[in-house]
């Protein structure tokens, strides 16, 4: 599915535009007509009255002016203090539509539509006009600096982390391709046996809670496990040749069902722009065109939901699984260049790039292998050697959460952004794109946009790891979830309170 792949603390309420209705204080800034000025400036073409009469008139006028001035002052004071008091009272009442979720108007129950655009690197939304994605952002909640993927930043590990709330070491999908030393079996992206897929994905959780789920492609969704049997018409088997328009239309079709039969949770998956990114890197016009096409699909989705009158009722969560970075020949590291220190046979290597994974045979000490490899890499005699650091998996930075599984090989190499490891120099030329690097690398970030009744409009939140999304979905749906690595309190800091 795609190629290889890309999830808090959060948010203060965003401010709303000021009302166009002027406040009392604003009205008071404009001077009202002064009655005394009007009296004194009135034209008089009649003959002048006698002096005594003029004195009497002047005296009466002054009394009138003084009375009016006093009355105006009293009115001003009354308005001013009334306005201040009202403002003070209103500031003590925090209730507003920015803090309270909007009620459903047509659907009877909450519905979450989880949309993935594979390889949608954070920042792609600025490459070209994206009015439809922009609409979701403007009227929803966005991770301002992108969604943080789990390590390794690959497609299958991340998609399954998003729907289980588990790190790869816990949900079992530790790479796109890997070996299980316990059984001797190999996992590929076509492996649908339940033994590989640990944890409880959202579609299974939803069914466990007596609701319906529908998946239009998602890694792991075809696996029949627990209460999920991948039902016909509600679980589509992956087929990359299906047009994106047809995928959108199929999901929209679920909203034509009777209200009680509409799935509470749905997935929608697009391979782009990951497909183009691997071929040309993140900065090619092909990427711009792919992003524009994804935006058109989001527009098609919005239009279809609006026609059915449910757009404002549906919680749309749009994510990517990882980012993308350019790679070229000059950024290569060859294992054969370490021969002076240690031979690394091809049969030891389970993956080369962007995650180097090595499993030596029994009788060969992983610690010795790591020590000798690092000695060579730091010698200055290996091209680009300082861009690869080799670890025993238990010595990896704890923030990667990449040790607690026998499926993870004992030796892991972290490669600097944009570099690649190969067995030997094949003299071939290549330039393209890759992902899978340390999830602390900014180019590996993707997007998170939440739009719907429980997401504040125009809110920006700090970046967070995608394992938090599981609890977010179960909170919106008001269902019980399985144990996971996300923070249980996380949805409270992201979602609006229930009315």
UniProtKB/TrEMBL annotation:
Which Pfam families does its entry note? Answer: Phosphodiest
InterPro entries per record: Alkaline_phosphatase_core_sf (IPR017850), Phosphodiest/P_Trfase (IPR002591)
Show the ranges annotated as biased composition (Low complexity): 36-46
Instruction: Report the SUPFAM superfamilies cross-referenced here.
Output: Alkaline phosphatase-like
Per the UniProt entry, the signal peptide is: none
Record has Membrane as a keyword: yes
Name the GO cellular-component terms. vacuole
- MF-aspect GO terms: hydrolase activity
Q: Where is the segment annotated Disordered?
A: 14-50
Q: Which UniProt keywords apply?
A: Membrane, Transmembrane, Transmembrane helix
Q: Which residues cross the membrane?
A: 57-81
Protein name per Swiss-Prot or TrEMBL: Uncharacterized protein
Record lineage: Eukaryota, Viridiplantae, Streptophyta, Embryophyta, Tracheophyta
